[in-house]
Amino acid sequence: MGTVLKENELNQLVRGTVLFQKGEKISFIGMIVKGSIRIQNGAVKRIAKKGTIIAAADVFADEYLGDYITEEDTIFYAFPAFDSGSLEQFLIDNSDYKGIVVHSMEKEVVEYLGERERILNRAGEFYHFLKRHYELAIRDGMDKEEVPRKFFEVVPEVAFELACREPKVSYYQECAKVPLSVHNEFYHDSDVMAFYQASEIAYVIQEIIKSCQTIVKYIEEVFYMYWNANGNNLFDKEVKFAKEMKKNGQFKMEQFIRINDTKDKTFMLNEIIEQMTGKQLPLDRQYLEETLKAVLNTPMASSQEVEEEPVRSAEDQLELLQNSLLQILDFAKIKKEEQQEIITAMNAFVHAKDRLSTQDDVRKLKKQIALYYFKVYKVCLFEWFENANVPLAVKLFLNYGYMDERLLDDEQIVFLCEQVDQSYPNLPCDIYTMPEWLKAIYEGRKDTSRDSFERDYRDALREQRRTGRITDREEREYLKDNRRKVIFEIENMFTSNNKIVNGKLSTYVPVLYKDEIYGDIERLFLSKQQLADTILELEEKDFTIFNREVLYTNPQLKIEKEYVIKHVYPDVILAPVYGTTSSMWQEITGKKRDTPGRFIFPSIVESEVYKLVTKAFGRFHWEYCRCEQGTSWNNIQYKSLTSEYMDYIQYYRKNHDLSEERREKIKVQIQRARNNSREIFLNDYELWIYYESKAAMKLNKVSRAILATYCPFNKDIREFLKTNTAFSEAMMRQIRNFGEKAKEWDMRIKRRENNNLEVPEEFYRTYEYYADH
């Protein structure tokens, strides 16, 4: 039972006082005069602050919807209220409180909606993690019968819709933005309006709380899918499968990483549920830890086909990495005087009190280290090109930005040692580590990237000749000099993108150090396989992303000019840095449109990989369209993704298909993106991929139609969305476009067949692309 309150008086309450308990018969509402009160109901919690009326929505439920506990020393004015009738009488007797009651309840709606979105995102995160792990296990050979298919039929983002309609929720969200003074003036003279509005809002609040409780219950179900005592769970199935793979000699370290991820997610889920509900779920932490270790200790069957290098123990690896910085500098053949300068700077960084500081002295030190880093990297790289035997410290330096063992924990170092020689054959797209990429340029297998001025190596040399910095003869020589090409790539693409994908401009330094690594490095490490799988997963949803129309000619078959569909994966590069974002550096190579783009990702990732890939995809859509359309990229006379989207954001104020509320949201979206058209589009693209693909409406009618036309979903998703009237019109636009194209190509092929002319394979593939999608 809650504390005894004095009615119609100020009550002074110390921190931690329980005013009301969930389920208690309603007795008081009241205003917080000073301090704050925490309201928690086993699913969500919120903090009500000074000037807020609390428990008004509870009156309509006849009981308190949560526990009310003071967050700090608080002064609370208590008004007696026993049912909705007493609240109505309170509003009649206290005209000055009408606006405050309504405004407080509107803010309550907004706060609970924020909490609901947070836990729904959590539910989605744990659902998709579970689904992805089963998909990867099936890919590696796990029996499909192990997958709990019925569970995956319920997608949380789609399943847990509010009973109250979206327009009603949006209405109260907008009302909460209206100043309290306006509320007071508006409701002052009408008891009926204030009470009616309060009763309507109370219904919405109750629905949101019920929805939150349902989602939390679902999260508990997800926990038991991760682990339970009966063995029918993801963790135990992954362990069992890993041991089977070890017996067959087919075990991959990636499987161990996935099991460790499952363990970490299970612990995280347990903590989240305990925070939200106060429940302590049955979790045997010791069992999970010991079972995980047992996977590594299970002997691996020998393979006669592959001779593996002897596996070094953790102690051996750490011993090899003593004085790593000196090993790296010696390998690079840096002069002793310069070595001392670099060692002095690194020692200062190692012993810095706060390595994440943005103070001038630390920033200056990091800038100095960055200059040394790229200079040493350049020299080490060329030495690596010519040497088969490279010290372990140098491998870690080139691949992950490791320079000094004092900057990382032993466990982090050992993990990186285990990963550095991992190979991933038969990936669907080319994924390079940074040293592998630079070696491909050195050997002439790949062209250099553009610099920040959109110039490639040839353009840069031409500019140097034009300004008299090099002669014609030197230009011709340098064009064949692969060493200079590598230096150009390091000084431009590498240095720029290392900083971009790190994403922390104020604290950036290219050296890997533990202070910036939030979480277990095993979970944050981005393997080539994981990245390739994520790219494929998203491409399956956004199937047009790497399909493009390219010019096709074949004089032998009497084909002068046709535009056929060609599938071109980008070159994907892993930068040796810890980072938070991705970079879509260029959409094509050189001038030809059928060449790969360049995507760069950090080797160790703070954010979710799926989100990083989504950002890269969105930016690629935009930049490739700009490249394809040339000067007409924003000319609405030539229909394209960029021209239609630019027309939409330039003239949204006059668009009759948009409500005033939607126009205001677009205005805010433009401001957040700082008027950058690509980033405005990216925001919509992310909503399109994350939510709209699951029928969760986040876009307006106009932007949805544009994305449905130029970034359409695969057939299965479209068929699912067509059943929803809000999506059907947008989906039909793409279906019409592809249907017309398929008909054109069918006629083109039949014409050649009727004239006994050979039909090239490219024609059939293009027809199938339009007909099958």
From TrEMBL:
InterPro entries in alphabetical order: cNMP-bd_dom_sf
Name used for this protein in its record: Crp/Fnr family transcriptional regulator
